[in-house]
Predict the structure of MaoC family dehydratase.
Amino acid sequence: MTKTNPGNFFEDFAVGQVIRHATPRTVTVGDTALYSALYGSRFAVQSSDAFAQSIDYPRAPVDDLLVFHVVFGKTVPDISLNAVANLGYAGGRFLAPVYPGDTLSAVSEVIGLKENSNRKTGVVYVRSTGYKSDGTEVLDYVRWVMVNKRNEASPAPDPVVPVLPDAIDPDALGDACPLIDNGSWDADLSGSRHRFADYAIGECIDHVDGMTVEEAEHQLATRLYQNTAKVHFNQFTEGQGRFGRRLIYGGHVISLARALSFNGLGNAFHVAAINGGRHVAPLFAGDTVFAWSQVLEAAEIEGRYDVGALRLRTIATKNRPCSDFPLIDGEGRYLPEVILDFDYWALVVK
Amino acid sequence: MTKTNPGNFFEDFAVGQVIRHATPRTVTVGDTALYSALYGSRFAVQSSDAFAQSIDYPRAPVDDLLVFHVVFGKTVPDISLNAVANLGYAGGRFLAPVYPGDTLSAVSEVIGLKENSNRKTGVVYVRSTGYKSDGTEVLDYVRWVMVNKRNEASPAPDPVVPVLPDAIDPDALGDACPLIDNGSWDADLSGSRHRFADYAIGECIDHVDGMTVEEAEHQLATRLYQNTAKVHFNQFTEGQGRFGRRLIYGGHVISLARALSFNGLGNAFHVAAINGGRHVAPLFAGDTVFAWSQVLEAAEIEGRYDVGALRLRTIATKNRPCSDFPLIDGEGRYLPEVILDFDYWALVVK
Amino acid sequence: MTKTNPGNFFEDFAVGQVIRHATPRTVTVGDTALYSALYGSRFAVQSSDAFAQSIDYPRAPVDDLLVFHVVFGKTVPDISLNAVANLGYAGGRFLAPVYPGDTLSAVSEVIGLKENSNRKTGVVYVRSTGYKSDGTEVLDYVRWVMVNKRNEASPAPDPVVPVLPDAIDPDALGDACPLIDNGSWDADLSGSRHRFADYAIGECIDHVDGMTVEEAEHQLATRLYQNTAKVHFNQFTEGQGRFGRRLIYGGHVISLARALSFNGLGNAFHVAAINGGRHVAPLFAGDTVFAWSQVLEAAEIEGRYDVGALRLRTIATKNRPCSDFPLIDGEGRYLPEVILDFDYWALVVK
């Protein structure tokens, strides 16, 4: 019997199965500093204990997407080591703030299975939950991945496809953001004068700046998240593969786009929910990432006078500035430079 | 109205104007570890809590240049986003030690303006001050940058050019260095037997070692400082520009030169003041940085039996070792390999 | 007299000589986060305070090899700055756990000297000890290096070659691992179901995954350890040298192999001793590292019901997967892809 983890194949999953993932990870100021160095994020709440305390956080919380990446990374060895493709995310909610010193773990439940007609692969749907060592849930989200079958002849399971929400209901938002003292919000320090009421539905915002990605950077990031997907690290094998090079972890693009979005969304300080996300095309080292966002909805959250919620669609491109808001061609297909289509709720100070 | 920050143009500045900058930043041991990894600095006071405590610091202070870069980074979006060139620094003083956990913010006052004769650009002089969340000032310095005009036809302001000191007066030094117990200074651990009295005015020191810079390294550094200058990050745009490549943040060179200077200046443990600095030529990834220093002055500081001040001129080169102290050619022009001419006061244990 | 450190030459060493090294270094969660980002290690004890506490550690200890690299780095300016080659390690023991906040220093004693027959170089044997600021010893090990003579005509010292153990005695293991509550060991969280008794002597384990190394990564690592060996950093000089490129610090390979070994050795959570190690061939940026291990011995440790010791031989290769356990050719020579042959004791939960 081998002692190495071969990863699960499609036949290894059953609806209702619960998988507790290795390795718990204490998130520290070391991780948050590296996150700053990797993306250059400038949101004041996550950057400054003093700013966070001035609006009634106990201290600067860990960036929401760092929490996401750490939780996601734990699921990789069990869920997607043999994945052909990461197909999508839905129904993601941030449920409690995370602070340096908190230890994060993850558990996943298989909520859907569907063999593909080619009989070689199937789609696995999991709901993954991240929690602290005291049991506090900090994040849950659904993702679905295409996974290889071990044996083409294995019988197909009864197909189960979960019904997933298009978007999180606004009243389910905000658990990971304490009630803040919005009267003490210092717009000079936050870097933006635009509050919740200043954003209009349909408004498009070019985030202007571009960020070129190096191999060392995405490898450092992905290892920091203990994400073991082979395609990100192994040039020897990938050099002989479909692209001839290492693929950059899709979450790296999400974090780059979010950091770039500070320029235009500086007061949208908290990612409260991930409605959906698709990695439309791969990113490679040497490419330059740009981003733009559109406001899809603006919602009040019951009981919250301090913040409102903007539903944002953030599009990231490679090697194409976004002043003309690139998205689809005349036939409705994504333009070739589009790499990410990400739909999320951000909380914005009122 | 756009929500993205277009940066200020020459017309947007007025003498006396005060700008409070975003984003406050809590500096942590995560940042100091990254600073070590980026430059390999070996000064014992900043490297070891135990060493620092043995000479009466409460703990290891944050490296002075890390403080400088964080404060500098904050000023970029407001001062130099549309800058053509960073022309120089003067009159910089470190005013209080910074420890992990301190939150740094910055404010700048416009102290000079002068339109250039081409009417397309002008020079903006600012005094920038970094301070902690309790208001303690930790650093102030003057820099001047050449900034584009929005409109060539805009009228020129009355020229105001501040009188800047050639060097900080020695008696103004030392506020960022507590009185130390120099009798407990352990020369084995500090890595140098040379104390203040061992340095002679005019003495030149080759720092010997060379350090090659990679794209990932300077990008990590510059994002860590939340410095948003586009030229450092965007290969897509820079590839079409003057150099065809990303420019490395000048401050990265200062930190490299300072770290290299440990070899010869190991007991010059604190940068107390920046008298002036010029980035003589650009540095690009793949280049190897070398450095040498000359002792310009040696000064006692009133009331300080523990430390003396050396005024040092540190020259950094690219792709040229410094055993022959390269600087200028026969006509007084900088040699092509010289990239930095930096004049500062360092405190040295007596 | 020069103020720069020229390093010691063979003539500068004498048997019995004791050298206290600069620079003491406080290891923090910033360093451990960087260590994670550089290697992607996933051992639960070092990754999670909560996991560590659940088995009776006071908190997550610093990774053993990070301790090794920091101690090793300090010895470089005094021992191996003029080394031609790092010939080997032996007799390494981890003596006390290290936690974030501890300050590490190092001292070396010269225990052997032998001039080579070419009269140009000699071998220097040192026992280096790392200790905390309170004097607690955390690590000691022997290494021997080939060092240049300053002057070929210098007389040879009487040769002294220390007798070194093939391996550390099992009863000398375990001082750096507190007695753990192995009944609380959570195999889901640790990522492995294989306990001490599950490993058989002679068993070979392919660690499967490959990791490509970038210049920026090994430079960040080696500077983090304040290791000043010139060959790792200076492309200007190395570009004109034997390989035409920078050499990667051998310790970087050890840490990569150890991190890869999680896949198959997930419960071998502590490196207790380094019996020996050889850097068989150089590694360069762009190469992909693979690894496999063989169980050489399995030993009980007196007084320890909680853990057993496995003596492991870990082989790292470049650009060659290890499913066929590559090692030597038909004539007993290392295969050209083998870069590391490392013999150590790991503690494994019972």
